[in-house]
Design brief:
alpha/beta, TIM Barrel, six-stranded parallel beta sheet, three-stranded parallel beta sheet, 12 helices, 9 strands, 47% helix
């Protein structure tokens, strides 16, 4: 599995505090079945003002420590940008750090309660510049949860989305679980990532979400993330939403009395 949203770099945000903490988290990733992780520290103006160079340096240092410790995990550079009008100047200056630094995909966090008017223009100009925004955890965004049509409109414009594995497993409550399941079912999300901040339940939820997704797990947890880290175009099939086979499997799963809440969400 490939995780495109992870807070694994030490001392940069609300993730691990020390290099040792990052190594512990890396071991947990390996045990959970991950081979590759994109490090996406928060970049929030006035809170976490990390530069592209600082993140790249931190990734290099962590990868060196992983190799020295014999931990078979590849960590790639990236960031989770809180959307603001500063993104476009950073892009023009060559300072915007896309996922795996390919210049193709950018992980973006939207304001929680409402989406200011400037956000639409920023996302549109990113697309015009050849950078595809990926909306982080839309299921935990109050505005999008109340207005799912807004996310569908974004998808129609070419904007992608990533739901959190823990949301699919119920870690963030029934409301987030319902919205995350709808994103998977309707094709408004193309990725499932952990958004892990340590060797905790968020990370462990990746394997559980894979089991719940069944045959579609490969697309959400490997194929689509692989296209992102390689900086290549995604297969149009990635946008089709839940397959009929998965719907049928979950219906049977529900009928037999297993995983009732998750199945009914689909």
């Amino acid at each position: 599995m490939i995780d495109i949203h992870a807070h694994i770099l030490p001392g940069l945000d609300d993730g691990p505090e020390t290099p040792e903490d990052s190594l512990e988290m890396a071991w947990a990733y390996v045990k959970a079945g991950y081979t590759t992780v994109v490090a996406t520290p928060h970049v929030i103006p006035g809170v976490y003002d990390h530069t592209r160079a600082a993140i790249l340096r931190s990734v290099r240092r962590l990868q060196e420590r992983l190799q020295a410790a014999g931990i078979p995990l590849t960590v790639l550079p990236g960031a989770e940008y809180h959307v603001s009008d500063r993104l476009l100047p950073l892009l023009r200056a060559g300072e915007l750090l896309t996922l795996n630094d390919t210049g193709k995909y950018l992980l973006v966090e939207l304001p929680f309660y409402q989406i200011p008017e400037y956000v639409s223009q920023v996302l549109f100009e990113l697309l015009l510049a050849g950078v595809t925004p990926i909306i982080a955890h839309p299921e935990r965004n109050d505005f999008l949860a109340r207005d799912p049509a807004a996310l569908a409109e974004m998808r129609a414009r070419g904007i992608l989305a990533q739901v959190t594995a823990g949301a699919l497993t119920g870690l963030f409550g029934s409301a987030a679980k319902r919205v995350a399941a709808a994103c998977v079912r309707e094709g408004t999300a193309q990725f499932v990532a952990t958004d892990a901040h340590g060797p905790d339940a968020r990370l462990e939820a990746g394997a559980e979400a894979a089991a719940l997704l069944g045959a579609s797990a490969k697309a959400f947890l490997h194929t689509n993330p692989a296209a992102v880290v390689e900086g290549t175009a995604m297969d149009p099939a990635a946008f089709a939403g839940a397959s009929s086979s998965r719907r049928n499997r979950l219906a049977v799963f529900h009928k037999e009395g297993k995983g009732k809440s998750f199945a009914s969400d689909f």
